Amino acid sequence: LDFRSDNTVGVLPEIMAALAAANVGTDASYGEDAVSAGLEARASELFERKVRVFPVATGSAANALALSALTPPWGMVYCHRLAHADVDEANGPEFFSGGAKLRPLDGADGRIAAADLDAALAHAPFGVVHHPQPSAVTITQITELGTAYRPAEIAGIAEVARRHGLRLHMDGARFANAVAFLGCRPAEMTWRAGVDVLSLGATKGGAMAAEAIVLFDDRLATELAFRRKRAGQLFSKMRFVAAQIDAFLTDDLWLRAARHANARAAELGRGLAQVPGLEPFAPVEGNMVFARLSEAVLKGLEADGFRFFAGEAGRPDVVRFVCSFATKPQDVARLIQAARRHAPGQ
Amino acid sequence: LDFRSDNTVGVLPEIMAALAAANVGTDASYGEDAVSAGLEARASELFERKVRVFPVATGSAANALALSALTPPWGMVYCHRLAHADVDEANGPEFFSGGAKLRPLDGADGRIAAADLDAALAHAPFGVVHHPQPSAVTITQITELGTAYRPAEIAGIAEVARRHGLRLHMDGARFANAVAFLGCRPAEMTWRAGVDVLSLGATKGGAMAAEAIVLFDDRLATELAFRRKRAGQLFSKMRFVAAQIDAFLTDDLWLRAARHANARAAELGRGLAQVPGLEPFAPVEGNMVFARLSEAVLKGLEADGFRFFAGEAGRPDVVRFVCSFATKPQDVARLIQAARRHAPGQ
Amino acid sequence: LDFRSDNTVGVLPEIMAALAAANVGTDASYGEDAVSAGLEARASELFERKVRVFPVATGSAANALALSALTPPWGMVYCHRLAHADVDEANGPEFFSGGAKLRPLDGADGRIAAADLDAALAHAPFGVVHHPQPSAVTITQITELGTAYRPAEIAGIAEVARRHGLRLHMDGARFANAVAFLGCRPAEMTWRAGVDVLSLGATKGGAMAAEAIVLFDDRLATELAFRRKRAGQLFSKMRFVAAQIDAFLTDDLWLRAARHANARAAELGRGLAQVPGLEPFAPVEGNMVFARLSEAVLKGLEADGFRFFAGEAGRPDVVRFVCSFATKPQDVARLIQAARRHAPGQ
Amino acid sequence: LDFRSDNTVGVLPEIMAALAAANVGTDASYGEDAVSAGLEARASELFERKVRVFPVATGSAANALALSALTPPWGMVYCHRLAHADVDEANGPEFFSGGAKLRPLDGADGRIAAADLDAALAHAPFGVVHHPQPSAVTITQITELGTAYRPAEIAGIAEVARRHGLRLHMDGARFANAVAFLGCRPAEMTWRAGVDVLSLGATKGGAMAAEAIVLFDDRLATELAFRRKRAGQLFSKMRFVAAQIDAFLTDDLWLRAARHANARAAELGRGLAQVPGLEPFAPVEGNMVFARLSEAVLKGLEADGFRFFAGEAGRPDVVRFVCSFATKPQDVARLIQAARRHAPGQ
Predict the structure, then answer these.
(1) Which of B28, B30, B98, D124 is most buried, taking the most CB atoms under 10 A from its CB?
(2) Quick check: B49 pLDDT over 70?
(3) pTM assigned to the model
(4) Interface of D with A (CB under 8 A)
(5) Nearest residue of D to residue C91, measured between CA atoms
(6) Residue of D nearest to A134 (CA)
(7) What is the pLDDT of residues A265-302, one digit of tens each?
(8) Which helix or strand (DSSP H or E) is residue B101 part of?
(9) What is this model's ipTM?
(10) Are B35 and B239 in contact (CB under 8 A)?
(11) Angle at CA D3, nearest 5°, toward D2 and D9?
(12) For chains A and B, what is the number of CB pairs under 8 angstroms?
């Protein structure tokens, strides 16, 4: 049973169907097609305002492109210490931005606190030519520890950012899980809270390879179009990327899939919390469960064939279990039972 | 009827089936999956030697990544004056390479001649620190004018390149069409002729979004792996990219599709050559037909609803018709008939 | 006798004196000193309007920084086929700009013609995301062939550039020689003609290592300040760079030195024109003489110990003689006599 | 009285004399001159082995160029939290390296400890394509807090670096002060300890604008030559940069100047340590004194016209006093007296 990531699973049937449906006849290439056109309308409806949408194929590209449009090369982008953009991209953001710097901040449960950002910016050397210039903030929703920023937290960060002249980006690789968990409107968590650009993830939620850069500031659109092209992310048969995102956003598929995954994670979190000696590492607010396991349990689960990642957050005893649209209740139950079985004193 | 490009068409049914087949169970992400592993074996068989394969999602990325591994930032990459890498990538190769320069060469029918390359290199300022350093050559197969380099021509270019210390890249967005036209072995046209890196196209041949960087020099593999990652081209659900290429290369699908497209282009070329006042612009050696049309024919075809690009090769009267795996004989016949009908004196 | 370049000679005594004068007491570093402050005022007076001045230490840096402020990374910068920026900078402009492309144009006597630029831009794919975007023009004054653009020619180029949305940069490594030759006002040849940014050379004119980026559009100043810093061109003891330029511009030193050099070149040009078999290659409009020499004369001069560069403009028989503030009339006379002596039939 | 920095002071008379001496006749440009040739010999003698020397004009450029030769763009360079390269260069190292990442480490008194580096590297994800790859370490000698690494400490860091496959760079903007303080041989502190590349500072020690990149690994020389050129740091009249460094290294001028500055700092450190309420912030091991001042003393000294920087190391009460070759014993005495006068209870 595979709890490694929501990207080890396949593709939602609705999205496979959308790909088949898009595979009829010919249409203009490079995003000039009908599906791509419709996607922008659909996203605008979802976000309750006109947005510009740039589909790309990986979250790496979505984040790096988005950040490159929000910072000059001499800029500094604040992020959480665990942020994927800093830790897991082989310097992709530095590459796309022409050399901007990421500056990690600490923060409980994977979240940046507005006050900490404010403190970091309070004495920042704005306008002094020697120093990297604070230019943007990127937050991950849900975070690398599976927690969700509340809209008020995001608004707080955005207020600090705006006050100091910084732009705000949201890495929404698991945006759906956050919306599903919080039950809020997408607008509330993004532009109404002050987000300038969103990387809206679909791949982890059940698409094949599709992410959307959503611009709430359309002055960035021309620049981003050229940036995307020269980065090799303007697909010739773009309709097949757009079709994935379009299907994902249709009839609440994205939310239904996320609710399923979240429900499994919630069950898993509750179940594991009962296991003696096992300690939750972060609140379960999406589709990921972080816990500290004794070595006996960890090794036992691995021996049973359960697959998951250990060594999370830089600590060898912290493991991550990720649920997806495909995780079954019985899979979760089996994992909990096994953990119980391996727990000391059982 | 759409003759704009082989990227306005959809996806081969065999490739759709491969995507469906890959959509079973879970597998490791980021290229650690079974399909990706199998692809390298399959490609090695095809090329009759061990090769390393890096799937990416666009030809833009394949070419820019490949070139960035073959040139230092102070290098100069020779290409044909019409090369996609120079003309159609919004400076993607410059971006990926950290600022290398492309140097366009003239050449009949879209091809670089070895002698012209040699002449350009004869007095090149090798080792002089002021000057961009000749570092690589990139050729397009089939070329931007639809012609195919013969293996001997490639070997000639490679000999010149090697003698001067340059590496050789082949942009094979339509590699299949060249192999189908020439009836040669893939090895003959690539590493046996002296090609170091190949961008092996699948998208235009019938995939959804899949290209493979094929390394014949495996010392580049580690560097390329990091370059691909930081460029946002390492897909989490890589198996779906690999599956497209794998299916494309299975049971000669790539060749069968290319032969079909080439056959249509050949019919079209022969038919148009009979149209009074219409003049072929380049030999038809793949799936593209370039011709000079009188304005009457050009406007007439457009009015009939035929779709194609005019203004090719910088000349307003040069049009391009592209055939694909999906082009039907009757589509071609209708286009020829219409051209005849609009020709002066008919 | 050394006619290789105006950079093989030393430093004007007035500039050495200025360095000594600056070497008193302490002053703020990184351009916050009194000399730097005064330089901006002096340059503003010279150009008859407020300008911003950024001293740097090489022409390579001045040009690359200036261009990087005038083009996005996906831009295309037009230049003459012989432009130093394209040919002699080991891809410096590509590096500083993050990957913009230089596009060489032909043009008689080292000059771009406005009409040729207009023709190149007439069908340029503005706004089409696939293609490098024309963004700037750079002209060299005096040119790489020693000729000078007239103010009306510059205005013509600027008009074309502005009409198409491009910015105009002047590489003025030998700006002084052009002003001295044309007898015009610096303003006339720059911002009044439509130049946005000037690289104002002092090194070749007699400074030690000092060039000034002069901005006629002060909206670029903030960006340029950060670009200069991160490029390692913000000097800690900046007053010594500023002092060189300040002295150069004081009491017409720059013009007097240039007039001297130009006078020597004019004498040399006239004298060589009389030598049988020797053919002028470009009009002498500054401090450089280009001529085609028979092999006998070329080898004879070398054997006599005269130093100069052959193989200019890509032709082995074209040589360049450069005069400087230090070239003496008798040096020129000796060169002419020697050339006569080696000429066939003498 | 100016204690702001050793770059607010002017130029040593011996170096002014060397500039005058170099200003005779003509010589080849771009480093092909006799002075530049001699410099490499002199440095080789100084370092007791063959070294390659690349003069540049700023420490920013020296460090950024050196690091760019030691790390790939996907690399991670470890440095101290206060390192100039990370904090004071407006992302210059990121620019020159094409996007490598700097990773700050904590460490007492401005120094990285080998054990802390080892701990950071122990679990580093070497070879894993997602993660920035540890590639180099840069240490500052003397450090940003005025302390000096002992040769054994450097060797310890180098051992850790080498064991993990990292290269070692030394930012020696104040290298002379370290050698003077420790009384060791330059070789001992550099290549014998395991340093691969040294930025050898001369400007702060008394030159006008001159730093030398010293390569102990000559395989980097070709690459560095092109990197320097395209970065606009290859000076046409290079002999004037080389002459500064050459004079600096002649007859122990560099050491004599550093000993003078160090002696003043030692006096100042001892004197201030006696001032009630004033607390040393770091040991004085070169020409800089860091101390925590009460607000009364800080304001008092400012009111007296003493110039220095407060807010060092991110703390408002930490001030820095820098001595130079030009600082006089009576200047130091006056500062100490003034501090006493302003101290509470006096």
Answers:
(1) B98
(2) yes
(3) 0.97
(4) 73-76, 87-91, 94-95, 97-102, 123, 129-133, 311, 314
(5) D230
(6) D90
(7) 999 999 999 999 899 999 999 999 999 999 999 999 99
(8) strand B101-105
(9) 0.96
(10) yes
(11) 65
(12) 156
